[in-house]
Amino acid sequence: MAHGKALTRREFMEVAGAAAATVAFADSLWSKLFASQFQPAKGLATAQTLITSCAICDSVCGMRATVVDGTLKFVEGLPEDLHGGGKLCAKGKSAPGVVYDPDRLKYPMKRTNPTKGLGVDPGWVRISWNEALDLVANKLLETIQNYGRDAVLILSRPKPDVWMRFVNAIGTPNRVDHLDTCYQPQKIVQGKVFGARLFGHDLNNSRYILSFGWDMPAKSKNVYTWTFAEAKRKGAKVVFFSPYRSATANLADEYFPIRPGSDLAVALAMIKVILEEELYDRSFLENFTNFPQYRDEILAHFAPYSPEWAAELSDVPARDIVRIAREFATTRPGIVPSHKKSLGANYANGPALQHAIAILNILNGSVDRPGGLFYQRLPNIPSVDAIFPPPPYPPKNGVYVDGKDLHPFVKQAGQGMWSTLADGLLRKYPGKIKFAMTNLYTHMSMPNCKEAAQALATIPFLVVIDTLPNEVTDLADVVLPLSTWVEGADLVPRNYRGLYPQVVVRQPLVPAQYESKGIGWIAIELGKRAFPEYFKKPDGSFFTMSEVLDEKVKRAGIAESFAAFRAVGIWSDPKPFVPKTSFPTSDGKLHIYVPEFAEKGFDPLPKWVPKREEPSSEYPFYLITTIPAVHRRNSTQNNRYLHELMPTNFVMIHPRTAADLRVVEGEVVKVSSRVGEVQLPVRISPEIREDCVLIPHGFGHQSRLLTLAYGKGARDGDLIPGQTMEEILARRDVGGSGCIMDAVVRVEKLR
Amino acid sequence: MKQQPLREQALEHHQLAPILGVLVATLSGQGFEVAKNSLDAAAAAHLPPFWAGWVQRLRQALVVAGPQGLEAEYVRLFLNPRGALCPPWEGAWQEEPRLFGPRHEGVLRWARQLGLEPREYLRESADHVSHELGLLGLMLTGQVPEEDIAAFWQEHIASWVPSFAAKLQEQANAPFFQLLGGFLASFLEAFPVTERCGSRASHTRAPV
C-alpha cells in the first residue's frame, strides 16, 4: 500500500478484511469442482506460528514456522532446542523449497510402457491410492509365494518404526541402506568399545578438539556447527588434519594437510606416545576401562607405531605428532570427534581409525564427561511394537544379496551394504531379487552408481516411494508419492546433543500436498493388505498413525495426546548430567582391547592397514569427495533456494596440477578412474594437496524430471569403485567400510 | 490493443458456465468421465454455432483419446514426468518460477475478497489454471463490480493464460489437448471482460 495516497477500494477491503463482493456456488460443474477446493471464509486470513523439527539432516533442529493463510512462509530456530540452539542452517531455512518444489511426485502412478530403462519414458498414468496399494501388496505376496521372502529387496533406512514393522513382516534379509558409506564403521566399533554409538559431542565445553578430517562444523550438522563455534569462542584449541583446507581448517589453530588415508598412522603414533609417556588419565583408565586387564597386550601392540614411521606415511612432521599427542592428553577435557562423512572414517582403514579415535578419547578421560563424547540421555518413547505387540516376525532366512551374512559384525549391525549390493545383484545372485521398494533412496549415493543402476534395472518389479522423481523413478513400475517432512508428524528426541531428555514435535505445517502420504500411513495401508495380522490392535481392529502417536506421547509422559503436544511443541526433562561410572558393555568397562573382535578373527586393537588404493602412474591422484555445507547429500539439489546457493559442482585441483595440464579456471576436464569417468570444470586452488583432486558429492542428477538439478555437474560415484564382501573380509575390515574415499583418478585436458 | 473478438465468438454471461465447465474439468485433471460429462453438458447447452463446433470436435477427440490416452497425456503435459511441458500454475511462468509463492498468494487475496478461503486440503496451489478460471467464473456470475473482474483479469489471467494456451497447442501430442488449447485461446479472446480491459504486454516467460 502506497503512503500519502487514499486507499483504493480494493486496498480498503483487504485492510478491512471484508468481502468486497458476494459470490455463490451455482449448481454447475465448474462451480462444484471449484467448491471442492475453496469454501466460504470463516474469518480473516490467519497467521500461525508452529513448532516443528527439521528433517533435512539428523541434527533435526527445532524450528518455529510461520504459516499465513495455509502457506508456509518461513522458519526460524527454536532457542530452547538442545540441537539447534535457536539457529538454523541454510538447508533448514529452505523448508518452503522442500514442500513447494514443483517437481514433487504428486500422485500415485503406474507405468504403461513395458520397456524399462534409464531415460526411457515410462508412460505414467495416475492411479488411485487403492489401486496402487492393491497392486503393490499383491505383487509382494505373489513374489513371496513364488520365490520366497528373500526375493524381496527393500532399499530404506530402518525408520520409522511403523515402516519397519511392515519391513519386518515381509521377513526378508534384504533390507539395505547406505550406512557402509556413512557411520556403519563407527556404529560397529563404538558399539564394542563404548557399548553404544555415541552421537553426543560436548564440543562447547571442550578445551582441545583434535580432528581427523571431521569437517562437520563447516558443513552438515547445525548441532556441531554452533557448538564448535562456541568452543572456539571459549578458547578451545583446534587441531585439524585434512588433505584440503576446508572451512574447519581455516578455523583451526593448527592445520596439517595430511596424506589421504594416513590419519590412522598419526592416531596410532599418538596413542603410542601417550601410553609410553603415561600421559593418560590414569584414574579413568584404571577405574573405567579394561586397560588394567590387557595392559601388556595394549602396550606391546602400539610400541611399533613410532611418530617417525607415521610422519613418513602422513607428511605430518614427527615432532608435531609428539607435541600434539602430549598437548591433547594433558589438556582436559579434550575430544576427538568422529562422525560419519568425516574424511578419515571413509577409507578402507576407517574402522581401525574409529577404534584409534575411541581410544584417544578414553586416554583423555573425557568419555561421558563434560567436554567429551557422551551417551545421549534419551526420553523413554515406546516403539510401535511395544504399544501394539506384533505376532512373532518371520525369521530372516535365505540369501543376503549384499553378502552381509558373511561378516559377523556387519550382519549384527544390520545396515549397509551399498558398496557390495551391485556385486550381489549382478554377479553372485543374478535374478534372485524379483521385487524391490526404494524409500527415499537412489543409486546416486551408491559407489559406482552406473553399475548400481544396471543392477537395479535387473529387478522385474520396482516400487519407488519418494517425494521427488529421482533417477530411479525411470525404472519404477509403481510410484508412491511421499509427503515431505514439512507435512509429517512425529516425536523427535534430541539424540545428538541429548544432555537431558528432550523431545521436539514434528507436525504438519501445511496439509500433505496433492495426494502425497506419509511413510507410516503407507506402511499401515500396505500392511493391512499384505500382512493384516501385524497391523491389528488387541480388539482386532487396525491401528492408525494417530493412535500410535497418541500412545507414544501418553506413555512417555509427554502429554495427554499428540494434539496436546503439538500445541506446546517441545518437552524437556532437564535432569542434571551425571557422568557414568558404568558403561553399557558386557562388563561395564570401556573396551580399549575388544575381545569380541579377536574371537571372530578380527584385530582386537587397531592395526595399521593402508587405504584400499594408492595413486599409480595410470591414476596419479587421490579422489576426495565432500558434502557441501548447503546441501544434504544428493537430495536437495532441486530445492530452489539451495540450488541458488550452489547449483553445480566442480573438480578442485592444485595450481601445479593445472599448470602441468595447461588448463585454466573453469575449463572442463575429464576425470577418470578404473570404473568410470566424468567431465567437470576445474576450480584451481592452493587449498588442496598437489596429489589430490576434490569433487563435491550430490550433483550430476540424471533425472530429467528434476527441473533445476537435471544435468548440473557430475557424480563422484561414477569414479568410486564398489567392492565385494570377500575383499572386505580379506582386509579384516571390522566395520565394513564402503571405501568412498579410496578411489584414485587421472585428470586430462579435453582436446 | 487486443483484437475485438469475432461476432460469432461473442458470449453472453449465461453461456459461460458450460464452457468454463469444460475448461475447469479438463484442466484440473478429473479424468475421462468428468471431462465427458462436462462436454455432454456443453453440447446440451445450445451454445452459438462457433462454440458448439468446438464442443463437438472436443467430444470426438476425447473419444479417440480414451481414458488411458487422456490420462497419459495429462500427466505428460502437466504433471512433470518428462518435465512438465506445459505447467498449469501461474507461478511457474514467472521470471523466478515458484509454486505457492506470490502468484498463489495473489489469487488467495482475491478469493478472500470474494468471501472465500482455501479448504484445508487445497490440492493445487491457488494459481492453478483451473482455480483461476473457476474464480473468474464465480466473479462473472456473482455480484462483483466490473472493475474488480477487470483487475483480476489483468493481474492474473491476462498475464499468462494466453501463453499457456499457446504452449498447450504446441506441446500436445493428443489432438484432444491441442484442441483444448485452441478452445481456451478462443475463450480468452471472446471473454467479455477483454473488450473493456484490453490486454497488457505479457512479462512472463514460457517455461523451458
What does this protein structure show overall?
- The complex is a heterodimer of chains A (751) and B (208).
- Chain A is α/β, with parallel strands linked by helices.
- Chain A has 26 helices and 26 strands.
- In chain A, the strands form six sheets. A seven-stranded mixed beta sheet of chain A has the order 6-5-17-16-15-7-8, covered by helices on one side. In chain A, strands 22-24-23-26-21-25 form a six-stranded mixed beta sheet.
- In chain A, helix 6 runs parallel beside helix 20 (519-530).
- Chain A is globular and about 90 Å long.
- The model of chain A is unreliable at 1-9 and 11-18 (pLDDT under 50).
- By secondary structure, chain B is mostly helical.
- In chain B, helix 1 (16-27) packs antiparallel against helix 5 (129-141), helix 5 (129-141) runs antiparallel to helix 6 (146-171) and helix 6 (146-171) runs antiparallel to helix 7.
- Chain B is globular, with a radius of gyration of 16 Å.
- Residues 194-208 of chain B have low confidence and may be disordered.
- Classes of the chains: A alpha/beta (751), B mainly alpha (208).
Beta-sheet strand percentage of chain A? 15-25%
Pick out the low-confidence regions of chain B.
Answer: 194-208
Which two chains touch over the largest interface? A-B, 57 and 69 residues
Number of strands of chain B: 1
Number of strands of chain A: 26
Summarize the structure.
The complex is a heterodimer of chains A (about 750) and B (about 210). Chain A is an alpha/beta fold and about 750 residues long.
Annotation keywords:
heterodimer; A: 751 residues; alpha/beta; seven-stranded mixed β-sheet; six-stranded mixed β-sheet; 26 helices; 15% strand; disordered N terminus; B: 208 residues; mainly alpha; 8 helices; globular
